[in-house]
Specification:
Shape: flat
CATH superfamily of the largest domain: EF-hand
Radius of gyration: 38 Å
Number of domains: 3
Strand order of the largest sheet: 1-2-3
Organism: Mucuna pruriens (Velvet bean)
CATH class of the largest domain: Mainly Alpha
CATH topology of the largest domain: Recoverin, domain 1
GO molecular function: calcium ion binding
Keywords: Calcium, Cytoplasm
Main location: cytoplasm
Protein name: Serine/threonine-protein phosphatase 2A regulatory subunit B'' subunit TON2
Strand content: under 5%
Number of strands: 5
Distance between the termini: 143 Å
Structural class: mainly alpha
Length: 468
């Protein structure tokens, strides 16, 4: 009723068109008024300006953080930690005996000891020990006092009169000081303070030692970087068994590697023979030998070794199956391609040489066992031994040697190892039998088998010069 018109006709009422808000004058004026801040109170203006300033500061910090790759606060914290660590290590270093202090201690020991009538050795009893401690403390200072503790005296072998020789004690002091200084130096290079050294940190430590090692002082400057790379690789081979790319500092300090490196303190022309230099991995002679070997094998001079190039190693006495297994197990996939295109870089070559030259060590034998384990099962069967030695036998016959039975060699290996499981030879079996290096040589190198086959003759040749 109420929706109709008065004349009874129904029709839609005309709709009013509302203009858009943006076209309305009062809206435009209000937006302009608020946007400029002119209509805001002083508190609102201050709040708006503060937000704008804080936003600009935040954006600036984000930009600097992105450029530096770190959060500013974290960077400051890191610098403070490094400074604190540096000051602590410097303080510890100042507490150590220096070269002059050690010389003074040796003089004190010799002046206050007694001579053994029977052997002529210089010795001291506990009373002498305490007296020398007092003299050293007066001349050197309190920092030498810790070496003269009763427990240290008890560490050394005593004669019937309760005396110890002064030389072993002095060598103990020198070794303790040397290892402590090495620990401090390595800790300074440990950038993330996690107790491990990365390759570049280890190389930096070795580079710092070179001027103090008598046999390395004359090293050509152009060879220093390569030498540090070669030297550092041995530490990682023995102190980084899981190949994580970092070596535990404690393991490095206790390893034979550090002791071998420190042997280079001796003056070469007086105390070290050429043979000893060649056998020491860290000697300049050995490092140059490794480089020359790699360059001679790298026929195409591309900086890596193919399987064919590596077959020329050691005059080609290594078996083809062993070379294949080395690439299968120890050459990183994707390093220089894939499949047969993979090649051995210098770092992998160093591990390869270290394994072959240290076959009797757990680390070297572990490297080789992975190659011997043809099926990747963690053990070797008689079939594996037969397959591995077949290549050795082939090279043996090619060299004009007598015919031999592969089964006899296989049985001999089994007798040498005496595995816990009579059907399997594991890595633990090879380590326990103390002949694992010999067994590995017999299975991968025809020269190694020849040395085992002629071991009695070789032993006689070694003994004859001594008898003369």
């Amino acid at each position: 009723m109420y929706s109709g018109s008065s004349d009874g006709e129904t029709h839609d009422a005309p709709q009013r068109k509302i203009p858009p808000a943006s076209s309305m004058l009062w809206v435009r004026n209000l937006r302009r008024f608020i946007g400029s801040g002119a209509g805001l109170g002083s508190e609102a203006l201050m709040e708006l300006e503060t937000k704008r300033i804080l936003l600009d500061i935040f954006k600036e910090k984000q930009k600097k953080s992105a450029e530096a790759g770190t959060i500013p606060n974290g960077s400051i914290s890191h610098r403070v930690q490094r400074l604190a660590k540096y000051r602590f290590l410097r303080k510890q270093s100042d507490l150590l005996l220096n070269a002059d202090d050690l010389d003074a201690m040796w003089v004190c020991l010799r002046e206050n000891c007694v001579i053994d009538d029977a052997t002529g050795a210089e010795k001291m009893n506990y009373e002498d020990f305490c007296h020398i401690a007092t003299v050293c403390t007066e001349q050197i200072g309190p920092k030498c006092r810790r070496f003269f503790s009763p427990s240290n005296f008890m560490k050394f072998e005593k004669d019937e009169q309760g005396r110890i020789a002064i030389l072993p004690f002095y060598l103990y002091v020198m070794r303790t000081v040397s290892l402590t200084q090495a620990r401090i130096d390595m800790s300074e290079l440990d950038e993330d303070s996690d107790g491990f050294l990365q390759p570049h940190e280890m190389e930096a430590y070795i580079r710092g030692l070179i001027p103090n090692l008598a046999q390395l002082r004359d090293m050509p400057s152009a060879f220093v970087q390569m030498y540090c790379r070669i030297a550092a690789q041995k530490f990682f081979f023995f102190c980084d068994p899981h190949r994580r790319g970092k070596a535990c500092i404690k393991k490095v300090l206790l390893s034979n590697c550090l002791q071998e490196l420190m042997e280079l303190h001796q003056e070469s022309e007086e105390e070290v023979t050429d043979t000893e230099q060649a056998e020491n991995w860290f000697s300049l002679t050995s490092a140059q030998r490794i480089c020359d070997m790699f360059l001679a094998l790298d026929k195409d001079t591309n900086g890596t070794l193919s399987k064919q190039e590596l077959r020329e190693y050691a005059d080609g006495t290594l078996t083809d199956i062993f070379i294949e297994r080395v690439y299968d197990e120890h050459i990183r996939r994707g390093k220089s391609g894939s499949g047969n295109a993979r090649e051995m870089d210098f770092e992998c070559f160093l591990d390869f040489v270290l394994a072959l030259e240290n076959k009797d060590t757990p680390e070297g034998l572990t490297y080789l066992f992975r190659c011997l384990d043809l099926q990747g099962r963690g053990y070797l069967t008689t079939a594996d031994i037969h397959s591995l030695f077949r290549d050795v036998h082939h090279k043996w016959i090619e060299g004009g040697n007598y015919e031999l039975c592969i089964e006899d060699v296989r049985d001999e290996i089994w007798d040498m190892v005496k595995p816990a499981d009579p059907l399997k030879v594991t890595l633990a079996d090879l380590l326990n039998c103390k002949q694992g290096g010999t067994v590995a040589s017999m299975l991968i190198d025809v020269r190694g088998f020849w040395a085992h086959d002629n071991r009695e003759n070789l032993l006689q040749e070694e003994e004859e010069p001594e008898e003369e």
